[in-house]
């Protein structure tokens, strides 16, 4: 796959979301490649040609935290989009994505970002099939995902992640704040992927 550029939630939200990502089921056999530990993120761009320096050049010189709003829990037909949450195409998120894609394209990197924007919840191997992906989504709905619990002003569907208990009750997320941009080498099994560079996004940060 090469290199990817990820928008990652702030550390507190990242930890909350990671707690509820599906694990390998104990009640049924699945492939060893299914349900790896993953870092929740939005892929802004991927390229098999780009260098790390090209990705750094593609990032806007001034970055702001990017709000990411959840829309719908979906089941896909690709390993990396087995079960995912589609995300609202906000002005800020689309502008960042388009800036990066255009810069990489000018560099001849042939960038891609399938099904942008989305946040994957599970990677499930093809040999486990559509039935296992549906099982994972159904189990999320039973425990973690509350659908249609908010009314979107645009009339779009919304979901909330019920991420765990606090002293006041459940911690629920309908969105996250993208405060880190990671450059990740995505080659081989997921557990072998390498984070090459992290940029922490704070108000009016300038990338150097």
UniProtKB/TrEMBL annotation:
Gene3D superfamilies: Cyclic phosphodiesterase
Signal peptide positions (record): none
GO MF assignments: 2',3'-cyclic-nucleotide 3'-phosphodiesterase activity
GO BP terms: cyclic nucleotide metabolic process
Family matches, as SUPFAM superfamilies: LigT-like (SSF55144)
Matching InterPro entries: Cyclic-nucl_3Pdiesterase (IPR012386), Cyclic_Pdiesterase (IPR009097)
Pfam family, one: CPDase
Descriptive protein name: 2',3'-cyclic-nucleotide 3'-phosphodiesterase
Lineage of origin: Eukaryota, Fungi, Dikarya, Basidiomycota, Agaricomycotina
């Amino acid at each position: 796959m090469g290199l990817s550029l990820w928008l990652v939630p702030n550390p507190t939200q990242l930890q909350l979301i990671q707690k509820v990502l599906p694990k390998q089921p104990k009640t049924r056999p699945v492939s060893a490649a299914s349900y790896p530990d993953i870092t929740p993120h939005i892929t802004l761009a991927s390229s098999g040609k780009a260098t790390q320096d090209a990705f750094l050049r593609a990032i806007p010189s001034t970055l702001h935290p990017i709000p990411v709003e959840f829309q719908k829990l979906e089941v896909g037909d690709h390993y990396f989009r087995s079960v995912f949450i589609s995300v609202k195409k906000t002005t800020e998120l689309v502008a960042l994505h388009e800036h990066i894609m255009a810069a990489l394209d000018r560099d001849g990197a042939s960038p891609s970002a399938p099904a942008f924007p989305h946040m994957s919840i599970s990677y499930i191997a093809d040999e486990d099939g559509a039935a296992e992906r549906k099982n994972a989504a159904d189990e999320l709905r039973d425990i973690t995902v509350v659908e249609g619990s908010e009314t979107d002003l645009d009339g779009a569907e919304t979901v909330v992640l019920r991420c765990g208990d606090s002293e006041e009750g459940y911690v629920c997320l309908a969105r996250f704040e993208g405060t880190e941009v990671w450059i990740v080498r995505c080659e081989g099994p997921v557990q072998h992927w390498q984070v090459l560079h992290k940029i922490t996004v704070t108000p009016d940060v300038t990338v150097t």
